[in-house]
Amino acid sequence: MGFKYHHMHIVCSDLEQMKRFLTDDLGAEFIEYKKFGTADGAMLSLDGVRINLRVRRSDEKITQNSLETRYGYDHLGLLVDDVDAAYEELKAKGYKFFITPVDTAEVRMAYFRGPDELLVELLKPLSA
User: Is 119 exposed, middle or buried (0-12, 13-18, 19+ CB in 10 A)?
Assistant: First the structure.
């Protein structure tokens, strides 16, 4: 049996804010609004990867603290041409970085939090 990546699904408190973040600030393409069960949502594409967004369903209780390390989803890693330029652009838009651009053994990277504390890594391999 073969497995292929299909999509990421993000539950967000404000659909329009998350959509703007992904399209305006990160360059995703808006595809369409869509219902996911009873919840309003939207479909986007970022570099060919589908991202589904939806708000909380009326019968759901959101309890997980995204500021704590936990099992499961950790962060969204985005390859960029220039980590420093992306850092400056996003910082000018008001995003707070908790790891500013730094080199590791393999990549130059930076980390910030988007809407709903969505953890995002910007990275560029040092060998490229």
Answer: middle
Q: For residue 62, what pLDDT is reported?
A: 75
In angstroms, the CA 127 to CA 6 distance is: 29
Is 2 or 110 the better-scoring residue by pLDDT?
A: 110
Structure token pair of residue 83: 């980590």
The answer to whether the beta carbons of residues 8 and 51 sit under 8 Å apart is yes
pLDDT at res. 5: 81
Q: Quick one: CA torsion of 79, 84, 87, 93, rounded to 10 degrees?
A: -120
Query: How is residue 63 written in tokens?
Result: 């309890």
* Per-residue pLDDT tens digits for 40-53: 999 999 999 999 99
CB-based contacts of 21-26 (< 8 A; 24+ apart in sequence): 21/114, 21/115, 21/118, 22/46, 22/51, 22/53, 25/90, 25/93, 25/95, 25/114, 26/78, 26/120
Q: What are phi and psi of 83, to 5 degrees?
A: -60, -40
Residues 113 and 120 sit within 8 Å (Cβ to Cβ) = yes
Coil/strand/helix, residue 36: strand
